[in-house]
Each structure stands twice: as C-alpha cells, then as structure tokens.
C-alpha cells in the first residue's frame, strides 16, 4: 500500500485556553520538525500540552498563534476533515451503531474510491491488523484489544499522510499493551507512515519511537532518540520523568587536558573532561542500575540500607547516606549476589567514565 | 492590570479563532446564523414587544401604566396573591415530591411501580382536568361537599382550591428532580455514616438531606415558577383570589387594554425570571451530585417501621387523590347533570363531538407540525451548545432556554403584539400557534439533547470528522443515531405539551385554528362540566394513544427528561 510520505512541522505553536478564572497556556511556543516516515512521540505528564499539540495537528483545535505544516503545506486554516490525518483515539471512538467493517470503511466514503475497491481495502487492512472474520461484529462484542485494532485499521485504511495516536494503549492491560505497541511499530514501519504518538508512559515512548519529545508545561524540554533521552537527559525533569534516577552532586575542582578532577561524596576523583568551570557544582545523573552495592569499605561512600524490595527479576534498595542524601539501587539477577538486608551498611560504586552531568541544574 | 489586559487580549484572540473556525465551516456558520435569527424573532422580539407596549402606552415613553398598577391596591394584591400562592405550592409540592422520591428510592415500600406512575401522571394530564374534578367533588354541587357532607356554603374557589389542584399537578416536577438526585447519591455514603455509628434518623438529617439541598432548592424554584405562570387552574378556580396571569389575560383580551395587560405580564415575568436565573446559575451549580447515567447499586438501608408507614400513607393519600380526580372526570362524562340528575347518558359525548371535532382535528394538526420541528431544532441547538465553539454561544444558550422562565401569558401577549402586522402578519394563522409551541417547548428537547450528548464521547464525532466527514454529515450519520432515545423523549414531551398547552395558546387561537384546551375552558366557563369532562377524556385518550404509537414506532425513550411548564 503506497502511502505518500509527508513531513509535519509545528512552527512556534501557541494555544491559550480562555479559562473562567484565568487563561491556561496549554502549548507555549512549540517548534518541531518531523521527517517523512518518522514516528515521533510526545511524552510528558498530564497537562503538559502533548494532546493539545496533537489535536492542533489534526485540526480539532485552532492555534492561538503559530502554524502547522503537513507535507510542506500550511494547514493551519484547513478544517480537520480535509487534512487527511487519521487519529487513533484513547477511547477508540468506534461508532457503536456500525459493524466492524462499516467502522473501518467509514473514512473511504469521503474518498474517491469505487465501492468494490473500498471493500477490498477494508478486507486487506483487517487482515493486516488481525481482524479477519470479525467484520460483521458490533464493536461492543469485541475485546479491548480487538477494539484497538479496529481503531487502528480505520485510521490506516484511508492512507493518511500522518497517523496520529492519542494515548492509544492506555485502556489495555499491561501484557496486551506491550504486544500492541510492537504491532503498531511494525505496521508503521512497513508502511513508513509519518506518525505522531502521544503518551505519558515512558516505556511506551522508548520502545516505539524514532525520536522522543519530552514536554513540560506546554514547552519542549528535550528532543532526542530514546537512547539520548535516557542516557543524556538535558534537564533534571527529563531525567526524572524517563525512569528512576539518582542525582549526585559533583563539584568541579579543576580541568586538565583530558580529565577533570571533581569532588563526589567529599572525595577527590577524576572523570573524563567536562566543560564546566572550577567551583561549580552540577548534578550527575546516575541510574539505579548503574549503582553497584559492594562491601562497605570499598565504595565511594557507604550508606545504610533502609528498604529492600524483592521484585523477582530485580531487587531494589534504598540507601541513606551520612550526609542526608538517599540513593536507590537496582540489582539484577539477585540470587547471584550476597543480599544486603535492611539495616546493613553497603558501599556504593558506579562507573565514572560515563558520568552525565546536567548543565543548568547547579546543586 | 497588565495581566488583565493580556487576558482580555487572549479572550479576544480566542473569539477571533473560534470565529475563524466557524467561518471555515459554511454549513455550521449557516446553522448558527439561522438558529440565532429564529431565536431573536420568536423568543426575544415578542418579549421586547411586551416591554415596549407597557412602556409606551400612547406611543410616547411613559411610566404611567406602572404608576397606575402600583397605585391600585387590588392590582398590588394580585401580585401579592400570585407570590403567596407560588410560595405555598412550591413548599407543599417540594415536600410531597421529596416524600415520593425518598419513598421510592430509599423507603423500601411496596407498589413502587404504581407510585412512580402516579407521580408522573399529572404531567401528561390535560389542564383544567384537576380543577374540573375538584369542582365536581368539592364545588357547590360537589359529590363530597353536597351529597356526602351536606355542606351548603362551602366554597372551594380561591386560595385553598388553587393550592390543592396546583400541588397535585406540580409536585411531579419536584419529584422528577429529587428522584434524579436521590438516585445519584451513592448509598455507600449513607451506609458509611450508619457504619460510623449514626442512627438512621441522624443519617437522614446529616447525610441524605444536606446532599439533597441543592435539588430541593431547585425543585422549589421550578415549582414556584410553574405555579406563578399557571393560567389554566386559576382561571377556573381562583374565584375572588386574583392572580397575575389571569389578570393579564382579562386586561388584554377582555378589556382590550394592551398597555396594562402588557404591564401586568411584565410583573409576572420579573419574579419568574428571577427564580429561573437563581435556579440555573446559582443553585444548580451548587449541586453535589453529578448524574452519570450509571445506576448505583441498589442497596438500601430500610427505614424504621414507623417511617415506612408514614411514607406509605403520604404516597397512598396523594395517589388516591390523583386516581379520584381521574375517576371523577370519567364519571362526569357519563352523568346527566352532576349533583342534580345522576342518570347515565351519552349526550355529553354527542355534544362534545359536535362542538369539538374541529378543535380535535386542528389541535392534532398543530401538534403534528410542532412536534418534529421542536425535536429536531432542539437537537440541533443541543449539538451547537455541547459540541461547537463560537462567539456568543452562552447568549444563544441562555436565549434558547428562556422559554422555560417566561410565563405563557407573556409569550401569548408578546406573539399577538409582535406578529399582527406585515411582514410577519401571523395572527389567526396556524403558523403563529405552531411557532409558539416550537419555541416554548424547545427547552425540554434541548435539555434532553444536551443530557444525552454529554454522555457521548466527543471523540466519536471527532473520529468522523478526522476521517473526512464534514459537520453536517457527522451530525446526520453519527450524532443523530446515537441520541435517538433523547430525541424520542423530546418528541414525546413536546407532543404532550402541545396537546395540553393553555396559557400562551389561549391568546393565539382563532375560529379557524382552535385548540382543544381553549374549548375545554369555554365549556367550563359556561358550566357545561359534562362536556368539559368528555373533552378532557378525548385529550387524555389522544395523548396516551399517540404516546404509545411513538414508543412502538420509534423505540423506548431512555433518557430522563426534566419537565417544566
């Protein structure tokens, strides 16, 4: 199924909702360029403006200022029914008075397609998403996962220039969610449709996207590949939002040619050269799985285990350090290691070569 | 200051964008303009005419008419009478309505279905019917007063008769509001309080009643407005107890004093509007319960035996009275001369058919025109209010609901004043009555539509638009099928209300286009109570038959509708 690849550009988008008490700035100056065939996730907590941004691409909301381009064409003033985007809604939004087949074929009514072709397209897309044989059912006779597939098929069959997803998996249980996100990614890749995907689930964003856009309070915090976002977050917010994290204060002492000497937990250490000035203190992002708990005498610092949570594949530890700082550590394959119990004192070690320091957040 | 300015600026931008969105959608724009034009011409303009005529008795602006009204003690008394009656009926009606609602939802009493029917029956009962029964039962030749008790000088006419018929006729309004409220209060709250050690009485007074307070206030105000606007009952049974709606009618049509009739109508409009605005913009916002349409699990804490007995007694007595009213009217239709000659006769039927067949036909024709238009227009407006954004939407919403508050008397006078000259010369036509029905009954259709649209996920319609359908296609193929139950409910009620309308239509009927209710009034006035009873029966039968047909052919209305008068 050849689908025209289209780029999507948001140009300084602003959306202000006039509230009764005060105005709410839902989207505040968002500029973003999405390549043809790319899947980009808008990730952030509720109220960060991700859904509003998506709805402006679909045309359901008119921007207060700024422009939306699809395939290089300014669509800011084009009504939603003429934009040729297709949205998969959080609630699926299936038409309850139509069968599965009628639901999927609905969008084809507005396109110049012969009836027999339309019927074929519907059958083919039902096969693609795994709905064969369910065409005559009514949506409320389907399971949640099947309804999700109908919603996806209904969006795909019109061969949209952009596919829009508004938290499509949030109504599914965890197992199904993982399965569906794999399928969405597979189908999107095989058809190479440009897609914008809104979610608040960082795992979903990580696993599905070419690029992730982390949003906060209507603004973009960071745009990057899932690896970038996780390993090199640009702000404390991003680091905190995508996964569990420890922030360790690092004071710059002096910088040499290739190395910088710093103080961490009151100890002088050297790390690969960073471009910060001596005297400054920055926060290092240390993921819990990077922290290694070892016998107390060997680590950078030692702390008392305040809680230990066994989760099967991993064990999570909380540590209280002498200075009042707390750290979280995750140990994989817990059976292989001598377990620390609550009340034990453990040493803490992590690899200094990959230390990522936050720029703005001086501790 | 600066923030304020930027806020205003943003709102202005918002309005501009809304306007731009609407303008991109010509069908939507045309609909909004058409609806606005209709509302201006058929809702605002008539009211404006009433105000204008009352302020310009001789073409010049003057307050003479009002000065006269206030200087005459009997006119002042009329105002006081209307308000006093409204207060008494609103209080009694709310008490009875609450008792029914509590008994049916929490009371654990038997014959629930029967009592629910009794609490709704008065809504579809023809006007005049209850006062007709009261006259037959308690009047000068009343079967109770004269035959059973042998009273000679008992006079049911006046305040006490009015309180009786209005309370019986209007408590269903309070019942329907409070029934909804009590259904929506999760019994867990009451069980929780009981579990924490409160006695049943304590739970009632500290949990149930406080949660119902907004609903109680709301019912009180709605019944108050209905009583104030009532014309049918007072015109028959008020005797020397003058009320505004009747006074306005006599000033206007009896004495041809249009400025004074208009001014009395305005005196009626003011308290009605006040109560309506308080209800809508203050009381209903304080509501603790949101009606979700999801029935809460049906577990109830049974009340004590004594409470149950008392509830059953009140419901029993009230239902008994309503049944008695019905039986009396049926009996009245077959009795030769009530109170004097009790022999069986079918003469009244023959007479009623002779004088009434044209009215029956025209009433049916008028209602048949008004009903579908009301239902459809109501749904379109509900759609605009719930699903679209455009500058001035709040004003459109307020205007379309205004007919709830404006007493029929004011509307009737307004229509006469507004449409008696070209280009809109409508007096004497069927159109003026149909239009009056449409714009008076639309609020019910709108409320039903709004209530059901709110429950439909807006993304279903967005999905349709997103896939390429324009607004009107989406409305026809997605929205309408989904709101069908509400549409049917709206249609049923607007039909009943067209069939039973009095207060406005009495000004608008003509020799050619008469209405059954105005014929019943005429027969009652000349004391042909037998014929009036027969005509009332006709009305009941027509309403029940058509109601039944609509359910058979269009399906069961599911949505609960609030009915005002």
What does it look like?
The complex is a heterodimer of chains A (363) and B (565). By secondary structure, chain A is of the alpha+beta class. Chain A has two domains: 234 residues, P-loop containing nucleotide triphosphate hydrolases (Rossmann fold); 117 residues, OB fold (Dihydrolipoamide Acetyltransferase, E2P). Helices cover 22% and strands 35% of the residues of chain A. Chain A has a six-stranded mixed β-sheet, with helices on both faces. Chain A starts with 7 loop residues before the first strand and ends with a strand. The model of chain A has no long low-confidence stretch (mean pLDDT 90). Helices cover 76% and strands 2% of the residues of chain B. Chain B is an all-alpha fold. Chain B contains 24 helices and four strands. Chain B has a two-stranded antiparallel sheet with strand order 1-2. In chain B, strands 3-4 form a two-stranded antiparallel sheet. In chain B, α2 crosses α13 and α15 crosses α21. The C terminus of chain B is likely disordered. Chain B folds into two domains: 256 residues, Orthogonal Bundle (MetI-like fold), CATH 1.10.3720; 275 residues, MetI-like (MetI-like fold).
Uncertain parts of chain B: 291-297, 557-565
In the CATH hierarchy, what is the class of the largest domain in chain B? Mainly Alpha
Taking the alpha carbons of the first and last residues of chain B, their distance comes to: 46 Å
CATH homologous superfamily annotation of the largest domain in chain B: MetI-like
State the share of residues found in helices of chain B, binned by percent: over 70%
Label the overall shape of chain A.
elongated
Number of domains of chain A: 2
CATH level-1 class of the largest domain in chain A: Alpha Beta
Report the structural category of chain A. alpha+beta
- Spans of chain A of at least 5 consecutive residues whose pLDDT stays below 50 are none
Distance between the termini of chain A: 54 Å
Query: Which sequence of SSEs, written as H and E, runs from N to C of chain A?
Result: EEEHEEEHHHEHEHEEHHEEEEEEEEEE
**Any idea how many domains of chain B?**
2
Gyration radius from CA atoms of chain B, angstroms: 25 Å
Helix content of chain A: 10-25%
Percentage of β-strand residues of chain A: 35-45%
